[in-house]
Amino acid sequence: MKWFQLIDAADDRSWAISVPPEQFDDPKKVWEFSAGKLVQVLEPIHLRMQQGNERDFSLTGFSIPVVTSRFREVVETLCPNEVQFFSATGVGKMQLSILNIPVSLDVIDYKNSTVQLCMNRGRAFRERYGKPEMVSKLVIKKNDLGGRSIFRVKDWRPAIIVNAKLKDALVDAAVTGIYFSEV
DSSP labels for 27-39? Predict the structure, then answer.
């Protein structure tokens, strides 16, 4: 089976959406949405938007996917038990959701990927030391993916990986704001 990184196709005309961290009891909670684990929060989640072209898929600065009902319907049809959706408000009358992918797999093929590791041992970087700081070419180990359709990559929060079936369904549904890179 082929696997693809789902990438935000933002350009300078695209809207920009953010999830203000101050709406949570603990502002660090916003990072849980890109950590590859189950999240429990009160809904709806408030969003902020800067005007621009609407898209069905957008990543916030915290690597949190914000999706429209078109994107959500495709994912709920093919892999409803692999994701969490949270209702969101603050962007006009559009029905937007936060997509959480609660699985993070250790799949980076370091031999064939181009990865720059964090080598800073300073206090602020202790947790990141020896982990990816930049991945310019991602190749994943395809063994033992457990029959999944979508997951995050352990230690590399921006990466969302989908199988070919989900990729093709998103393309067939004409979902906007995305492109794919085979991994």
Answer: GGGGGGGGTTS--
**Which tens digits make up the pLDDT trace of 80-102?**
999 999 999 877 677 899 999 99
pTM of the complete model beyond 0.90: no
Q: 3-class SS at 169?
A: helix
CA distances from 171 to 22, 68, 114 (A): 35, 15, 27
**Contact criterion met (CB below 8 Å) for 102 and 38:** yes
Provide the β-strand partners of residue 108.
140
The answer to whether residues 176 and 56 touch, using CB atoms and an 8 Å cutoff, is: yes
Among residues 56, 33, 2, 53, which one has the least CA distance to residue 178?
Answer: 56
Q: Are 161 and 4 in contact (CB under 8 A)?
A: yes
- At 77, phi and psi to the nearest 5? -75, -40
Dump strand ranges (E) for the chain.
Answer: 3-8, 16-18, 45-46, 48-50, 57-59, 65-68, 84-89, 96-100, 104-105, 114-117, 132-137, 150-153, 156-163, 178-182
The distance of Cα 85 from the centroid of its chain, to the nearest Å, equals 12
Quote the tokens at residue 129: 């030391």
CA distance to 29, 83, 84, 98, per residue, from 38 (Å): 12, 9, 8, 13
Beta-ladder partners of 87: 97
